[in-house]
Specification:
Elements: H1 2-31, H2 41-58, E1 62-69, H3 72-79, H4 81-98, E2 104-109, E3 112-118, H5 123-136, E4 141-143, E5 146-148, E6 152-159, H6 166-182, E7 188-189
Parallel strand pairs: 6-7
Antiparallel strand pairs: 1-3, 1-6, 2-3, 4-5
Helix pairs in contact: 3-4
Length: 190
């Protein structure tokens, strides 16, 4: 009888551990991009909404950078999707390395990334920050044993000037990013 109870307790512990691991995996996949490990669109939107609530009370400002890899489709088409995935992963790492601890970096979809730089109160500060980000991305990426230069276009929106909610800030930074692409790429627009 004791052996049966001990076995039942052991099996219950194993089942609970597996259940907890499955829940943790599901939560991670719901909030983070599996390829890059960055927050996904859903989790980013929640964090940005929380930040907006916080800064409304304190009167702080921040900048949001919508960043898109220039000609990413050509990478996938010419050297393959595995190389494209490696580029996305390394690109995400470089973005994360340029961010400060208080900033937010996320992958929204495909080759679209976003950064929120806290305590950026004017266009001059934002301009310096996005230039720092773009410089970090200029070093060649090693893809399939060859060095590839990759550029990025970025759109910048400022809170509260360009929007006071998640939707308007993403819309305005996305529109500015497309203006940067239309102007010749490898630049940023406000």
């Amino acid at each position: 009888m004791m052996l049966i109870m001990a076995l039942a307790a052991y099996l219950l512990a194993v089942i609970n551990r597996e259940k907890n691991q499955a829940i943790a995996t599901a939560n991670y996949r719901a909030n983070f991009d599996v390829l890059t490990g960055l927050p996904n669109r859903y989790y980013f939107s929640q964090r940005l909404d929380d930040l907006i609530r916080d800064v409304k009370r304190s009167g702080q400002e921040f900048a949001i950078f919508f960043i898109d890899i220039d000609r990413f489709k050509q990478v996938n088409d010419s050297i393959g999707h595995a190389a494209g995935d490696k580029l996305l992963t390394e690109f995400a790492q470089r973005l994360a390395q340029t961010a400060r601890e208080s900033d937010i970096v996320a992958r929204l979809a495909g080759d679209e990334f976003v950064m929120v730089m806290r305590n950026v109160s004017d266009v001059i500060q934002a301009d310096l920050m996005i230039e720092k980000v773009q410089r970090a991305l200029q070093a060649p990426f090693d893809l399939e044993g060859r060095q590839h230069i990759v550029t990025a276009s970025a759109g910048v929106a400022m809170y509260p000037v360009d929007g006071t909610d998640v939707t308007s800030l993403l819309l305005h930074s996305d529109q500015a990013m497309y203006a940067a692409k239309r102007s010749g790429r490898n630049t940023h627009y406000f």
